[in-house]
Amino acid sequence: LTHEYQARDGAHHLHPFTDFKALADQGSRVITHGEGVYIHDSEGYRILDGMAGLWCMNLGYGRRELVEAATAQLEQLPYYNTFFKTTHPPAVRLAEKLCALAPPHIQHVFFTGSGSEANDTVLRMVRRYWALKGRPEKHWVIGRENGYHGSTLAGMSLGGMAPMHGQGGPCVPGIAHIRQPYWFGEGRLDEAHGMSPEAFGQACAAALDDKIRELGAENVAAFIAEPVQGAGGAIMPPESYWPAVKAVLAKYDILLVADEVICGFGRLGEWFGSQHYGLEPDLMPIAKGLSSGYLPIGGVLVGERVAETLIEEGGEFFHGFTYSGHPACAAVALRNLELLEAEGIVDRVRDDLGPYLAERWASLADHPIVGEARSLGLMGALELVADKATGQRFDKSLAAGNLCRDLCFTSGLVMRSVGDTMIIAPPLVIRREEIDELVELARHALDETARRLTR
Ligand code: PLP
């Protein structure tokens, strides 16, 4: 069965973020079903999904309520659009629910089919906003190196993933990037290893100030960032970072876009990651955990400042997607939010599971090849190092992170590697004993990685 699927897959299927040729040669692992925090493959192995799919299966696998919400809606009205002054009950209810959960200054939402489309929408909205304010030249958007905002042309241009930018052709113009607040990767190496995390956070915010002055504040529309940078390596900024960034944006009257595609819906122990850091973003792109990944849906939560201008002064906004507010996706998202709320999952991440993971995860910091173990809510990272005393990395040619990831997978745990940073973001329904299992599987993979790299 496995070989047959692999051969047929290799013959026709071009996978996202995959070396097509290498995959066709090696074959993929075939995932057949899931239950709770576990997935199962075609060889009969059970694997703890330490990444919640792609950071999205917040409620975990096998939730009947979401299947029933989808089925009921597909029977009632499988599709209608929300273009040209039409609507339908699932879109109405979901918009209402999202605005009730969002911070009070956010009372509107624009629906999309994905996080990438949400960020394309963000770019169009911020430019439209300033144009309506009579300032069309204020159209530059500043993002961050190593940020991830999706794979469409606008999404990848807003993001700062060098390999994506480097694959041919120009990015969307009018987008600049500043350094990321990645203390382990950059800050501790600054100024002869002397910079404290807090000083580094300030320095990164100062880099934003510098970039704004370089471009001219009158030309800068918005700053976009993930509250915690996810795909870039689960990078929690130093505490000094966000307050300093907020002050810079206020000084120059620049909009803040907090990309909540990963951080939203409980991942960091709040409904939105922005709330953890005390941010009041003008725009918040959302997706993934919005439906716990059961059906594709995204959107942009729009704060009153921008919403009022678009509504009162904008006329028709020539923008939208066939599947904006898709009825079945909206019905599933609504049910998902109701379940997250009714089961107290967001609070449990903040008060119980997050602190529990933090304690267990920190125990991995003792491992000989771990330079740092950090976590916030149910997101964690390990930094692999060749020399614990100096924090020196493994030689790149060893691809230590990928080795560790593959060893994890074969021993029954999905972890992601970004370079030599190992990441976890399990479903939010994970239990304490499953966190114990996750940490033990990770430790086992670290042992095996160390054994292979140092023999
Ligand atoms: N924004 C962030 C922060 C993400 O992590 C992602 C996906 O990983 C996206 C946007 C893009 O979302 P999608 O893959 O649904 O287009």
UniProtKB/TrEMBL annotation:
The UniProt keywords, alphabetically, are: Aminotransferase, Pyridoxal phosphate, Transferase
Q: In the UniProt record, does the keyword Transferase occur?
A: yes
Q: Which cofactor does it need?
A: pyridoxal 5'-phosphate
- Which InterPro entries does the UniProt entry name for this protein? Aminotrans_3 (IPR005814), Aminotrans_3_PPA_site (IPR049704), PyrdxlP-dep_Trfase (IPR015424), PyrdxlP-dep_Trfase_major (IPR015421), PyrdxlP-dep_Trfase_small (IPR015422)
Mention one GO molecular function: pyridoxal phosphate binding
Q: Which SUPFAM superfamilies match?
A: PLP-dependent transferases (SSF53383)
NCBIfam families xrefs:
PRK07480.1
* Listed name of the protein: Aspartate aminotransferase family protein
- Species name: Halomonas halmophila
